[in-house]
C-alpha cells in the first residue's frame, strides 16, 4: 500500500468516525451544568470525559456555549471537554456593571477555570470571537497552552473593523432596498445596538456566513436557554459595533506577538467568509508563520458545518485524537 493511499484511508476513517459521533442527537443531554462561584458570580461550566483537557470558546461576543457543544461535544469520548458560559452569557450570572464585559475579563475567566479544574496544560478551540481571548490567553499564559485551534478568527480590533466595513459594503451593494432603511435610521442617529436598527440590520440574508446552504444551523438544546446576550456584544464591540468598533475589542492587537506563541496552532479560514474575510485571514501566514493554516474552499464562517468531513478529519489529526 502506498503512503498516499494510507493517508487517504486514515482521513476517511477519521471522517467517518467523527461525523458519526457529531450527529449524536442527544449530545446536550450527556452534559450537566455545574455552577462555580468566580469573582462573586455563578458561572455555568459543563465538563465531561477523560484525557487531555480542551476548552471550547464560542463566538459573539454574546453567544452561549451551546453551539460549540453541539459541534464538538462528542470529543468527550477521547478527551476532557470543557464548555462554559462567560459572564453575562448563557446560564451564567449577569455582571453588576457592564464594564466587566471585556476581552480581558474573558481571558482571565479561562485562567481561573483552568486553576479551579486543576488542569496543568489545556488546549483551546475558539470560533469567531472565541479566537480573540484564545490568542490573548496563549500570549499571556504561553506555558499553559498545549494546542490551539483558531476557527475563522480575528487577530486585532483593526481586522474586526475592516471586516465590518467589508460586510457593510456587501450588504449595501447586494441589498440596496434594505440598505435604504438602514441609511434612513442611521440618519436619525440610531446605532446598531438600538431597535429598530438592531432587528433590521440582523435580518440581512446569511449568504456571507454560509457559502452553499444558508439554511444550515448549529445544533441547539431543546431546553430553554439564552443563546445571545446583546448587552455583552454592545459592550465589548461597542454600541455601534457593526459600523464603528470600539469597546474592549478595538484595543486588541496580537499581530506582533503571534510569532511568540508556544502552543501548536491550527488556523482555519473559509474562502467565502464575510465575517472574517480571506483578505485578512491569510495575514496569519505572515504574523504566525509557525502555525498550520488551512483554507476551506467551500465554506463561509462555519467550516465545521459546511465541510464537516474535511474539517473533522483535519481537527482529529491535528489534535492527535484516535
Helix content: 25-40%
Separation of the first and last Cα atoms: 21 Å
The first-level CATH class is given as Alpha Beta
Q: What is the H/E order?
A: HEEEHEHEHEHHHHEHHEHH
What integer value in Å does the Rg equal? Answer: 19 Å
Structural class: alpha/beta
Number of strands: 8
Task: Describe the 3D structure.
With 322 residues, the chain is of the alpha/beta class. The protein has one domain: Alpha/Beta hydrolase fold, catalytic domain (Rossmann fold, 3-Layer(aba) Sandwich). The chain is 36% helix and 15% strand. It has twelve helices and eight strands. It has an eight-stranded mixed beta sheet with strand order 1-2-4-3-5-6-7-8, sandwiched between helices. Strand 3, helix 2 and strand 4 form a beta-alpha-beta unit. The longest helix has 20 residues. The N terminus is likely disordered.
From the structure above, extract its key features.
322 residues; alpha/beta; Rossmann fold; 12 helices; 8 strands; globular; disordered N terminus
